[in-house]
Amino acid sequence: MLTVTLQQLTPELDGGYIIDKAFYNRHWSYVRSRNLIYEGSVTLLFKNIRLLQYDDFTINKSSVYYNVLYKTPKLINTLKM
After folding, report:
1. Shortest CA distance to 45 belongs to which of 10, 4, 12?
2. Of the residues 5, 7, 30, 36, which has the fewest C-beta atoms closer than 10 A?
């Protein structure tokens, strides 16, 4: 099962606001699976633009990642190791 997520980005990695999700079955061919996702993603985007136009639009907070994000260490931290 393949998932496509339309989300509003925030400074947090994977901590944005989820607008909508779509689920697709895998195909035996990578190219066919990719094309299915590309075409479905366009449909998902237009669906949500239409919902935005009619004020029937909801956004949910992502619960995928809730831990502290790791960042690139500073030079002093690297030299301590």
Report:
1. 4
2. 30
* Token pair recorded at residue 1: 């099962």
Per DSSP, the three-state class of 7 is: strand
Alpha carbon of residue 45 to chain centroid: 12
Number of domains in the chain: 1
73 three-state secondary structure: coil
Q: Is the pLDDT of residue 66 over 60?
A: no
Kindly write down the DSSP assignment for every residue of 31-65, as one continuous string. Answer: HHHHHHHHHHHHHHHHHHHHHHHTT----EE--S-
Q: pTM here?
A: 0.61
In this structure, are residues 39 and 31 in contact, taking their beta carbons and an 8 Å threshold? no
pLDDT at residue 18 is higher than 70: yes
Rounded Cα distance between 74 and 81, Å, is 12
Q: 74 lies in which domain range? A: 2-80
